[in-house]
Structure formats: C-alpha cells, structure tokens
## 1
Amino acid sequence: MKAITMTAIGNPDVLELHDIDEPEISTATQIKVRLKAAGINPVDTKVRRNGLLYDNPLPAVLGCDGAGEVIETGSAVSQFKSGDKVWFCNGGLGREQGNYAEYTVLDQRWVSLMPKTCSFVEAAALPLVLITAWGALYDRGGLQARQTVLIHAGAGGVGHVAIQLAKLKGARVITTVSSGQKAEFAKAMGADEAVIYTQNGFADAVNKLTDGKGADLVFDTVGAAVFKESIAATAHFGRLVTLLDPGELSLAEARMRNLLIGFELMLTPMLRDLLDVRDKHVEILNQCAEWIDKGLLKTHISQQFPLAEAAKAHQLLETGHSIGKVVLVL
C-alpha cells in the first residue's frame, strides 16, 4: 500500500511516499479500515522534528487522526461491520502505524462511528482536537455556565473547536488571535470577543473586558510566554490549563491569586496504555458526533493535500498562518 514514511528526524522533506506492507488483522477484536483522510496536527510535526515517542527504529508512519471505511472485521468484533464509516485517534507516535497511509488496523475499542453529516475530510480533522479541548475545558478546567473563559489561538485547530465547546457549556468566550481576519473567524465560531494580541499583548485587554476580574478559566494552547502573561489575566481562585511546558518562571503571582494550574496532554492514555481513559476518549467522540449531527459543532478545513504532498502540509502547519485544520486526502 501507499504510505508516507518518516525516514529520518528532520525537516518536512524526510516525509516520503513509499510502498509498504499492507497491515492485516492479527487479533479477534481488530478491524481493518480503508483510510479516506488523515488529520495533520502539531504533534505530527514535533515527532518529525524531535523523534518518535517510542524507542523503535525508523521508518515510521505518522498521523494520529484518521477517518475511513471498515473493510474487514476480526471474529470477535461486535461493534462494527464492513461498510461502516469510522473516525478515531490512534497510532502515529512510533509504535502503532499512523494514518498517513491507505489502510490501517486497530482494535474496535478505539473506534467511533463518524457523524452522519460529516465528510471523511471533516471527520479526520477532529478527533485529537475535540478530545484535547474537552479535556482542557471540561475535565481539567471544570468550566461552568456563565463563567468567562479565555481561549488562546482561537483560530487554530484546537482553539476553534474549544470556542464551540465552551459556548455549548454556556460560557462567555474571549479569545486571542493574531489578525483581524482571524478575529472575524473566531467570532464566526462563537467567540464573544477577540483580542488581537500582536498589538499590546492580551492581559490588559482581557482584564478590561472582565471589569478587572480576569477570566475564570484560561486555556493556553501556545506555550511559555503566553502562559506567563495569562497569570495576570486569570481571575483570583481561577484555573489556568496549558497544553505545553510553561518552562521555568516565577509562580508568585499565581500563588497569590490561588490559581489551580492544570496540564492537558490527550496523548497520555495512548502513551501510558491507560485503557479506561482511552474508553472515555471514544465516549467524547460519540457525544461530539451527536452535536455535529445536530449542527451544534463544526470544523473548518483551511486546506486539503493529497497523501503524496504530506511534506507541504507540514510546511503549511509550521508557518502558524493556517486557520482551522489541515488534512491529507487519500
């Protein structure tokens, strides 16, 4: 089968189109899926730049997010049948095969039926970002109706679905963006206010919008500098959740504010084989599928690339200029 393989650690040109062995079902509870699309996420580019997250040799197939059609089932599979359209977040970190390929095999336990109203491209764009945003806002952040949440990078892959999940909870959403175009997009996704941080940062603007109180919950999707400034934009006794390592910094002001600081890494259950938590990830996809089919949740695809152009997709994502998601189409 055709697949994009990571042949070395490095720039996007280490991603090459090769013919590799087609995976086959090896346990009774596995299904085989003909992939139709694969989502591109920042973790894919980080693995490509820094190396696999398992001590296995290269080459490897990247891509955590996939959507496709079931074409074969193991003898004990009870949840799916041939012809079912499915989406999932599985593999792509250096142990199980990722989804930059024509076929994949995985256990039925980690698979969900696609939303009926989604295309394969839309479905492939969503699993990782939905699970990430859900974990940060609902689980780590404890977001409640009528609270104010600050979501950083609201035009990004995680950000634009986080805005929608926050509005579904009944929260007021402030988001940060880098341009007027992205501000308009974020508001179209449901944000109540958008702060263009490139002008004067964001803390002062957020505090002005909240009458000096700050946001009850801040969701940092960017990194150390944003995390540091976010402390001053978080309400006393509020919560600050980040996807990334904030680095070494003084937490004196966070302590004075009595902040709860949390981390969200949705890959942990896959990396640590926390099976019960992975079950919850599938439950999240099931719930989100219902919301999507009711028109309450959607994704924005900024660009689609054919499988052979995976390197170009990585290049685009690493510019930081794309809005929404980038997807490979098979």
## 2
Amino acid sequence: MTVQRAHSTASHPHPPATSAAGRLGVGGGTALYVGAVLGPGVLALPALAAAAAGPASILAWAALLATSVPVAAGFAALGARFPDGGGVATYVHRAFGPRAAAIVGWWFYGAVPVGVVAAAWIGGQYTAAAAGWGHTGAAAVAALVLVAAFAANSRGLHLSSRVQLALVGLLAALLGAAVVAAAPRLRAAHFTPFMPGGWSSVGSAAGVLFFAFAGWEAASHLSAEFADPRRALPRVTALTLAVVSVLYLGLAVTTVGALGPGAATTDTPLTALLSGSVGGAARPVAAVVALFLTFGAVNTYLAGAARLGAALARDGAAPRRLSRGGAPGQVPRRSLAVLAAGCALVGAVTASGAAGPDGLDRLMRATSTCLAAVTLAGLLAALVLLPRRTPLWWAAIGSAAVTSGVLALSGPLLLIPLALAAVAYGFQTFRRPSA
C-alpha cells in the first residue's frame, strides 16, 4: 500500500509536455514500483493470513500473485498508451467519464484514514513488543507516528525520493534475510492439516491480503515519469513482479513452515522469523525498521491524499473549501484536517478495543475493500480502452472476476465503498453550480 498522487483527470487529461519524463529509467522505475507494491503492511499480513486460513493461506498468496500479473500488465499497457500522473483515475475518466473518476478518487481518499491508522498500528505493535509495553504502548506509539506525520505534512515537509527508496531497499533486504534465516527451520508437520477452515478460509485470507497487492494501482501514477513508457513499462513491470513474487511467496511459506501454529498468534511475524537466527537482537532491529517504514509510508500517504482531496474539491467532486492550498508549492491544510479527523476517529475506535481483539485485521480488510474497488474500476476501464479479444484483454477479464470475488467476500465491509460512491455521486448531483 502506497501513495496515490493527487491529480485532476477532468482538468488535465493529458500529461504536460514539460513534465519530468526522461528522468526515470528501468532501474529507478523498478525500485519505485517495488516500493509501491511493498509496504509496512507486509510486516503483519503473513500472521493475519495464517490466522484466517492456516497453511492454506499460501494458496491465497499464490492466487493473488497470479491475479497481479494481468493487473500489472494491463496497467502497464494503459500507462504506455496514456502516460499520465492520474493513473487509474485517468483510465476511468477516459473510459466512463468524470463522475466515475470522481468516485474512484473518493474510494482512495476514504480509505486513507483507515489505511494509515493500520500502518501506524503495525509500527506500534513492533515497538511495543520490543519494549514490552503491551496494547497501551502500541496505541501510544501509533498515535505518535500519526501526530508526527501530520505535523510534517502541515509544514510541507516530505521525505525525499532517495530516503523513500532507501526505506524500500531496507524492507526488501530485511524480508529476504528473514526468509533465508527461517528456511532451515521449515517443518513438513507445520503444513498439516493444510486447509483446516475449508475453501472459504482461503477467500477470507485473500480479503485481508489484498492490502499487499493494491500497490499496482498506485504504481500506475508513475507512467508519465518514464522517458519511453512503451518500452520501459513492460520491463519494469516484469522485474517488479519477479521481486515481489519471490519475497511474498518466500515469506508466506517460511511463516507457516517455520512458525507452525504460532504464526496465527503472533503480532510481529517478522520478529519471530528473525529470532531464530539473531536471537534477542531481532526485536529491536525489527522494531526500528518497522517504525521508520511506518512513518515513511504514513507521511507519504497523507501528502498525496491531502492533495487528492484538494484536487477533488477543485473539480467540483468535493466541498470547494477543501481546494485551498492545493496549488503546487502550497499545503492543503483543510484537506489534511479532514484526514486528521478521520484518523482520530478510526484510531480512537481501534485503541479503545471497540473494533474487537482483531482490530488490525478489520482495518486492513476495510482498506483492502476500498482499494479492491479501485483496482476493479481500473480493470473495467482496461476492458474498454485496450484492444479487444487479445490475450491481455481476456486476462483482464479473469483478474476482474477474481477481484470481484474478493469484494464479494468482504461482506458488510462492501458498505464502505458503496457509501463513498453514494456520497461522491450525490455531491456532484446536488451541489450548487459555481459561477
């Protein structure tokens, strides 16, 4: 899970001729794409998936990876044809018009308060586990991460791209080290019974795991940054798929095979995997890495979402007052305040325990539901914009079917994107026309 760049497809359907295109090659693009797909969510997801489906959670990882291939290829093809910072919103605008694009924007904007609280909570859990602070300590650390990120954004301070790439490289290296360190402890007995909860449990695991696979939507916003999108995007997409597949499947298999039943009960699976090789140093190392990754993701997510809210307001898809500060070089503090209020509400509910003992799982499922809706909208746009009856077109149909299945298994959480769509549509329908 990562940031979507604020963009107005209604006002800027085509990339400017003087954009930053030309500064991004295959190597740098691959690093950014890997960073878009990976995120702090992967530090908690293996345990949540194992709790939902046991060893069969590996099937959910594999199915979503397979689904990601046509999703990534489809978005790469669309990016090559329509290189633009708007990403999926641009494709939906071209295929279905500005109203549909506005709904997609609301889905993303509405998912941000839930998603960043989930990310902050992950950092809080790893830090609290290292210090022995418990639930209250995790909530306090998560709150500090959120306050620091909002303070930085209110002053217009953002992490540089080099720092972001360093954090991504650190995460990939740590995940790879955890997989290698845990491999000797794999036990065949930990894979039986393989599917204790039946096929429905695999679907439940896929619902929460979508949190880790929605980054392709965010990566689509980078298409205009390439010197030659038609040549670079397919290569970058293939390399990213290879890296992500190795890391995700390796982490899924080692989490189940090395931790066994304990995989479903730990809040910090990465610490548990590393502890077998580095001992007591695993807790502080994982905590520090998780904290930095969490802050980086939350800070970047809020920066992009605040500008997205201002862009929606500028184009008449949100209250006009939110557009203040949305110009380049300014800080959209009103939009940021709306996000802060949403985060405060979600955070209070989670910290109080009102969301239940599996609060993080619920947060990730709610975020995944909204992002799955965004991905489905992008796939449907691909079916309209890409050449029909080609292998990629048929593959997009298959991925749309799988994504629809994930949404169907979301149950009551489907009310969130439905409500956001109703608000977006209603606002555009009944808003007072401006002069």
